[in-house]
Specification:
Blueprint (H helix, E strand, L loop, with lengths): L1 E2 L2 E2 L2 H8 L7 H7 L7 E4 L1 H8 L9 E5 L3 H8 L4 E6 L2 E4 L9 H6 L3 E5 L6 E8 L5 E4 L2 E7 H4 E4 L2 E4 L1 H8 L5 H10 L5 H15 L4 H6 L2
Parallel strand pairs: 4-8
Antiparallel strand pairs: 1-2, 3-4, 5-6, 5-7, 7-8, 9-10, 11-12
């Protein structure tokens, strides 16, 4: 598990930050029931929306839009604590902060962790995404966009980020599990989606990225 650019062993992570509750996309759907904004599942579970189950998961990564962060804060009020994880720092997102407060802007630019109380494990690692309900925008290159309707896929009533987009997020720093996810997805990606990922990798990380040649075979 990583935070602030540091990779920590599970024991180190739990010593500093506490453990995770092991939630699933179905648990996220229960939490987001009645949420008026757009949300979807990213991370490893987004890969498995294409491949089927591959491995255990440390956490569950729902995603929401940064422009709808106030909706998330209102939805969580009285139910979950939200902690901002931005620029290597963790800060509580207090319910009393007024809209427009700089600390809310920081929260809406990265990710927030959610838990019921200080004595409870973390429930969700909620990713804060740029873009709008109509348009997906890549957080590392805002020139890379896609209609949101094409960026998400629905499986059993839950929206997931398309696997090729999740692989793009994983491509910056390829860990063993990221390579395993790529290997599992490669034979299942339709040709237009393989081509999109190859082009996106060239645009954002360069043609020498190890996955480009595999996608173009």
């Amino acid at each position: 598990m990583g935070i602030g650019g540091w990779e920590l062993h599970d024991e180190e992570f739990e010593w500093f930050y506490g453990g995770w509750a092991g939630r699933t996309p179905s648990d996220a759907a229960s939490f987001f029931e009645g949420y008026p904004g757009l949300w979807w599942i990213a991370g490893g579970y987004a890969i498995e929306a294409l491949t089927g189950p591959l491995r255990q998961h440390d956490d569950c990564d729902p995603a929401v839009l940064g422009g709808e962060f106030e909706l998330l804060r209102a939805h969580a009020r009285g139910r979950m604590q939200l902690w901002s994880c931005s620029s290597g720092m963790m800060r509580p997102v207090f319910e009393s902060l007024p809209a427009g407060d700089e600390r809310l802007q920081l929260s809406a630019s990265g990710q927030v962790w959610a838990r019921r109380s200080a004595g409870d494990p973390w429930e969700f690692d909620i990713l804060i995404s740029p873009g709008t309900p109509e348009t997906w925008v890549y957080k590392r290159d805002p020139a890379l966009t896609m209609p949101m309707a094409d960026a998400l896929v629905e499986v059993d009533g839950i929206r997931y980020l398309r696997a090729e987009i999740q692989l793009l997020h994983k491509a910056l720093r390829v860990r063993p599990k990221d390579q395993a996810d790529f290997d599992a997805c490669l034979p299942l990606l339709a040709e237009p989606r393989r081509r999109w990922l190859a082009d996106a990798l060239v645009q954002t990380l360069g043609a020498e990225h190890r996955w480009v040649s595999l996608l173009n075979q």
